[in-house]
Design the sequence.
C-alpha cells in the first residue's frame, strides 16, 4: 500500500519483480535436481546482483542442510563471497580453503563463523559450507579429497574454463553455474589457443560452454535486471548482450552526481572539467586526445586520466542514489581506472601514487570483473592503435570497462580510434562447432559504442 | 633428417612429392605421379615411411639413465631431429601423419605397417611442435627469425629464402634488395605456386593418360620420370637452402637452457617410441582430460621458454625493458641486514638500490626476479625516484639473504617479471571425466579417414571453360 505523500520507490517494480520471479524459478529448479547429475545455469548481465543471488541461494541450500561448495575463479572473488555470506547470514559457518599465502584479509577472517581449515580438516570435519577458488578446490579434491558435496555453486562461471571445471565438477553431482556472459572469456598465453576450438574437448571454452555442449537440455535462466547500472547506462550495456533483454532496477534520476563549479585559476583544466560535467549530467563522457599512433602505455593519455580523477576529487564530487538519503562526497576508493595492459596499469599506478591517489583502484579489465565503483575512468582498448586485433576488439574487455560504474563512466581515447573501424572488418577464421566470433562481435560492439557515445564526446 | 614436401594445388591432404635425407647430404625423393590414387600413393611413400620408422627406432634404441629423486627413467640418449624449411611443412607433415596413422583395411588387405607407423611418428612430431622451445622438429623459418633480427615482417619471415637473404645478402647488396629478390624467385613449398601447378597439371595429365589406369610398378615407374625430374628441380634449391641455414646456425653457441629443454624433448620422444613399439594407437582427437593437461603443460613450457630466452640473450630482454617489465642498472647499495616486520616479527629482508641508465616508472609492490636467480624468490619494488638521467629503484628481497640471491655491489644487474620456475606442480587429472564433460549420448562412430579414397575425385573446374559462369557467382 502506498501512502499519500510517501516518497516514490527508487526502484522500477516491474523490473525488480520480474528478476525476483526468475531467481525463485532458478532456486526451485536447483532444489528439484539435488541428488541428480544435473545443473542449472543463471546468466546475468553486468551488475545483476549475481553475488547477492549466489549468497541468498547458498542460504536456501543450507536451510535444507545440504553440504555446499562455492567457488569462483580468483581469490578476490572468493574473499568477497565469504564477506557477503557472513554479512547476509551473520555467524554462518564458512570454511575458506586456500592455497599457501592466499589467506583471507584479516577483517574478513575475523568475522564470526569464518574459518580457514586445511583441505584435510574440511574433509574430516565434513564442513557444511566450503568456499575456495576453483583451482584450489580442484587441487584439494585431487590430493586429499574434500568429501562429497550435495551442490557445487560456481560464481563467475563464464570466466572459468572447461579445464578447471573438469576436476572441480566431480566434488558434487548437482551444480549451479552463475555468470555474466558479456565478460571476458577464458584466455591462454599460447600462440595457438584455438587448436581445440570447436571440439568438445576444448579446454578453453567456458564452464557453461562445455556443460551446454554436452548437456544441451540444461536450463539456462536469464536474469532480466541490472542493479549496478542506471537507465542511462543500459543502452550501451545492451550492446554486449544481443540475446539477453534486461532493464535497470533503479528509476531514472535516482542516481545523481554533482560537482562544484570549477574555481578561478582552473582554465587549463577546461576540457577536463567539460568532460566531468558531461559525465555528471549524463552518466557518460567520451574524451579524445588528438589522433596519433602512440605506444601502449602512452604518457599523454595517462596524464589526462590522472587529471580527470584529480579534478573529480578537487571539485568535491557528491553522489546520491537509492541507498543514500542525500548527497555524499565520493572517496578515492569509490573510483576505479580500467585499462587493458599491465604496463598501462603500472604507469598509472605509479603516477596515481605520486599524486597521493593510492586509494584509487587501477587495474586491468580482467581483474575488475565482478567489481563495482561509483565512477570509472577507462582507457579505450583501441586508443592510439594503428591496427585492430582480436585482443583489443574483444567485446568482453570493453564490456567490463563500461559496466563497472554506478554513477558515471569516462572513456579516454584518441580521435583516430574510430577510424580503425571505418573499413571492412577483417576476415576471421571459422571453426566447425563454434559459432562466436570475438573479432566480428567486438567490431560490431565497438562501432555501436562509438555511435552511442557520440553525443558525449569531449575533446581533451 | 631433413624433409621437403610439395603438395598438389588445392589438395591439402596429399603429398605430391616428399624428399628426405641427411641435412647437407644427398636426398631421396618419393613421387606418386597421381597421389590421389591410393595404390600409387602408398607405393611411392613406402620408402620414405620405412626410412623414417627405421631412423626413429634406431634413435630411441640407445638409452641413458636419468635419476630424479627415487625415480630412474631410461631416456633416449638422443632423438631423431627433423629439419624442415617452414612451419607450413610441419602442418603438412602433420596432416600426412594423421592420414597414414589411421589407415583402414581395404578388401581385407592391410596397408603397409611402415606407412601407419610413419604416420604415427609424423603425427607425434607435428603435435610436439606446439611445445614452446622444443627442438625435435625444427622449422627453419621460425628458428632463423628467433635467432636473427631482420627487417622482415612476421609474414615475410615465413619465407626461408627471404630470411636467408636478409642474414647473408651478399657483398655489396642491401639486405632489403636481397630478400626482395629471393622472395620473387624462391619456391619453398609445400604449397605450389600457380606456375608450378600449371606444369604439374600437364605432367600429371600426361602421366595418367600414359598409364591408362595401370598401377603396376613395372608400367608406372618408367612413366614417372618427367614428374620426378620436375619435383627434383623444385627440391634441390630448397635442400641447399636448408643445408646452408643449418650450417650457419650450428656455428652459433647453444644457450645454457637448451640442454634442459632437449632433455624434455628426449623424454617425450622416448615415451612416444615406447608407445608405438608396444602397438599403442593415438586418438584422432584429445579427450577433455588430455586437452586440459596439454594446455597447462604448454602454458608452463611457454612461460619458461620466454623467461630463459630473455635471461640468456640480452637482445631478447629489450622488449621487456621497453615495456617496464624489466629494469637494468648498477647496484649502488646493498643492505643485507635490513629487517622488516612480516606478520608479527621482524625478519631479515635485504634491501638493494639499483641506479638505472634510463628513467623507469614502476609501482611499489611490483615483484621482479633477478635474472641470475630467476628460479628463486622475487624482489619487491619499494620505491622509484628520479636520479641523474635515469632512476633509482629500491628493491627488497622477499626472503632471507643468501650469497646466490644477491647481486654484487657496483655490478650490473637486471630484474624482470620473468621467472623460470612455475608456481606449483599440476596434478594429473582424474582419468574418468566428470558427467559435465561427457555427452548425454555417445557420438556415432566416424567413418574411416580414408573412406572416400575409392570414389572418383570430382573433376576440376576451369574458370575459363565453364559453360554457365553465373552458376559459380
Sequence:
Amino acid at each position: 500500500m502506498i501512502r499519500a505523500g510517501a516518497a516514490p520507490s527508487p526502484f522500477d517494480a516491474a523490473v525488480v519483480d520480474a528478476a525476483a520471479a526468475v531467481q525463485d524459478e532458478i532456486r526451485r529448479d536447483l532444489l528439484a535436481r539435488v541428488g541428480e547429475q544435473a545443473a542449472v545455469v543463471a546468466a546475468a548481465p553486468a551488475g545483476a546482483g549475481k553475488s547477492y543471488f549466489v549468497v541468498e541461494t547458498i542460504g536456501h541450500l543450507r536451510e535444507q542442510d545440504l553440504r555446499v561448495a562455492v567457488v569462483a575463479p580468483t581469490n578476490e572473488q572468493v574473499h568477497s563471497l565469504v564477506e557477503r555470506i557472513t554479512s547476509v547470514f551473520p555467524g554462518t559457518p564458512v570454511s575458506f580453503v586456500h592455497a599457501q599465502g592466499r589467506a583471507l584479509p584479516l577483517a574478513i577472517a575475523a568475522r564470526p563463523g569464518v574459518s580457514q581449515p586445511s583441505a584435510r580438516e574440511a574433509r574430516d570435519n565434513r564442513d557444511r559450507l566450503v568456499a575456495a577458488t576453483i583451482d584450489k578446490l580442484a587441487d584439494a579434491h585431487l590430493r586429499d579429497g574434500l568429501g562429497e558435496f550435495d551442490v557445487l555453486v560456481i560464481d563467475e562461471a563464464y570466466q572459468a574454463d572447461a579445464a578447471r571445471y573438469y576436476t572441480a565438477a566431480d566434488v558434487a553431482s548437482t551444480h549451479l553455474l552463475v555468470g555474466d556472459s558479456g565478460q571476458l572469456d577464458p584466455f591462454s598465453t599460447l600462440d595457438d589457443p584455438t587448436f581445440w576450438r570447436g571440439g568438445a574437448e576444448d579446454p578453453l571454452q567456458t564452464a557453461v560452454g562445455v556443460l551446454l555442449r554436452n548437456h544441451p537440455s540444461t536450463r539456462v535462466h536469464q536474469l532480466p535486471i541490472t542493479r549496478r547500472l542506471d537507465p542511462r547506462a543500459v543502452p550501451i550495456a545492451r550492446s554486449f548482450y544481443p540475446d539477453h533483454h534486461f532493464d535497470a532496477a533503479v528509476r531514472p534520476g535516482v542516481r545523481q552526481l554533482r560537482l562544484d563549479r570549477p574555481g578561478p585559476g582552473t582554465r587549463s583544466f577546461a576540457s577536463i572539467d567539460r568532460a566531468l560535467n558531461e559525465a555528471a549530467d549524463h552518466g557518460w563522457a567520451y574524451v579524445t586526445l588528438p589522433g596519433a599512433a602512440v605506444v601502449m602505455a602512452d604518457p599523454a593519455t595517462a596524464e589526462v586520466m590522472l587529471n580527470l580523477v584529480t579534478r573529480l576529487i578537487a571539485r568535491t564530487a557528491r553522489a546520491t542514489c537509492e541507498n543514500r538519503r542525500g548527497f555524499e562526497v565520493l572517496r578515492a576508493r569509490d573510483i576505479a581506472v580500467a585499462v587493458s595492459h599491465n604496463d598501462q596499469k603500472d604507469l598509472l599506478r605509479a603516477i596515481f601514487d605520486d599524486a597521493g591517489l593510492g586509494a584509487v583502484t587501477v587495474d586491468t579489465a580482467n581483474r575488475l570483473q565482478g567489481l563495482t565503483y561509483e565512477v570509472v575512468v577507462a582507457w579505450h582498448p583501441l586508443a592510439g592503435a594503428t591496427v585492430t586485433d582480436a585482443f583489443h576488439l574483444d567485446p568482453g574487455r570493453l564490456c567490463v570497462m563500461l559496466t563497472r560504474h554506478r554513477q558515471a563512466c569516462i572513456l579516454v581515447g584518441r580521435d583516430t580510434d574510430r577510424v580503425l573501424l571505418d573499413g571492412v572488418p577483417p576476415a576471421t577464421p571459422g571453426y566447425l562447432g563454434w559459432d562466436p566470433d570475438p573479432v566480428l562481435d567486438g567490431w560490431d560492439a565497438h562501432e555501436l559504442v562509438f555511435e552511442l557515445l557520440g553525443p558525449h564526446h569531449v575533446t581533451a | 633428417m631433413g624433409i621437403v614436401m610439395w603438395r598438389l594445388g588445392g589438395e591439402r591432404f596429399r603429398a605430391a612429392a616428399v624428399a628426405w635425407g641427411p641435412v647437407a647430404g644427398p636426398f631421396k625423393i618419393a613421387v606418386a605421379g597421381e597421389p590421389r590414387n591410393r595404390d600409387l600413393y602408398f607405393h611411392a611413400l613406402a620408402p620414405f615411411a620405412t626410412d623414417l620408422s627405421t631412423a626413429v627406432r634406431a634413435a630411441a634404441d640407445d638409452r641413458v639413465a636419468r635419476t630424479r629423486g627415487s625415480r630412474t627413467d631410461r631416456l633416449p640418449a638422443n632423438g631423431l631431429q627433423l629439419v624442415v624449411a617452414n612451419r607450413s611443412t610441419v602442418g603438412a607433415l602433420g596432416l600426412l601423419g594423421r592420414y597414414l596413422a589411421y589407415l583402414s583395411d581395404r578388401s581385407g588387405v592391410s596397408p603397409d605397417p611402415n606407412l601407419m607407423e610413419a604416420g604415427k611418428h609424423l603425427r607425434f612430431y607435428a603435435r610436439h611442435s606446439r611445445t614452446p622451445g622444443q627442438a625435435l622438429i625444427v622449422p627453419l623459418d621460425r628458428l632463423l627469425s628467433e635467432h636473427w633480427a631482420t627487417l622482415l615482417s612476421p609474414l615475410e619471415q615465413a619465407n626461408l629464402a627471404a630470411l636467408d637473404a636478409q642474414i647473408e645478402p651478399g657483398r655489396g647488396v642491401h639486405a632489403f634488395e636481397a630478400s626482395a629478390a629471393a622472395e620473387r624467385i624462391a619456391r619453398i613449398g609445400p604449397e605450389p605456386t600457380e606456375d608450378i601447378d600449371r606444369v604439374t597439371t600437364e605432367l600429371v595429365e600426361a602421366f595418367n593418360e600414359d598409364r591408362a589406369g595401370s598401377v603396376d610398378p613395372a608400367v608406372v615407374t618408367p612413366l614417372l620420370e618427367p614428374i620426378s625430374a620436375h619435383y627434383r628441380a623444385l627440391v634441390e634449391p630448397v635442400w641447399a637452402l636448408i643445408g646452408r641455414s643449418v650450417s650457419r646456425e650450428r656455428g652459433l653457441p647453444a644457450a645454457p637452457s637448451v640442454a634442459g629443454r632437449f632433455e624434455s624433448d628426449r623424454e617425450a620422444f622416448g615415451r612416444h617410441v615406447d608407445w608405438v613399439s608396444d602397438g599403442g594407437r593415438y586418438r584422432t582427437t584429445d579427450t577433455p582430460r588430455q586437452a586440459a593437461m596439454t594446455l597447462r603443460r604448454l602454458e608452463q613450457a611457454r612461460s619458461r621458454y620466454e623467461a630463459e630466452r630473455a635471461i640468456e640473450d640480452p637482445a631478447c630482454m629489450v622488449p621487456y625493458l621497453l615495456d617496464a617489465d624489466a629494469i637494468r642498472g648498477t647496484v649502488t647499495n646493498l643492505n643485507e641486514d635490513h629487517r622488516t616486520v612480516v606478520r608479527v616479527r621482524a625478519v631479515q629482508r635485504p634491501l638493494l638500490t639499483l641506479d638505472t641508465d634510463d628513467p623507469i616508472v614502476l609501482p611499489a609492490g611490483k615483484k621482479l626476479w633477478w635474472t641470475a636467480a630467476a628460479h628463486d624468490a622475487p624482489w619487491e619494488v619499494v620505491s622509484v625516484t628520479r636520479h641523474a638521467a635515469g632512476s633509482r629503484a629500491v628493491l627488497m628481497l622477499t626472503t632471507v639473504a643468501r650469497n646466490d640471491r644477491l647481486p654484487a655491489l657496483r655490478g650490473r644487474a637486471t630484474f624482470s617479471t620473468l621467472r623460470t620456475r612455475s608456481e606449483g606442480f599440476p596434478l594429473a587429472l582424474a582419468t574418468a571425466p566428470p558427467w559435465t564433460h561427457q555427452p548425454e549420448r555417445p557420438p556415432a562412430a566416424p567413418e574411416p579417414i580414408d573412406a572416400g579414397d575409392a570414389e572418383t575425385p570430382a573433376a576440376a573446374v576451369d574458370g575459363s571453360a565453364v559453360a554457365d559462369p553465373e552458376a559459380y557467382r
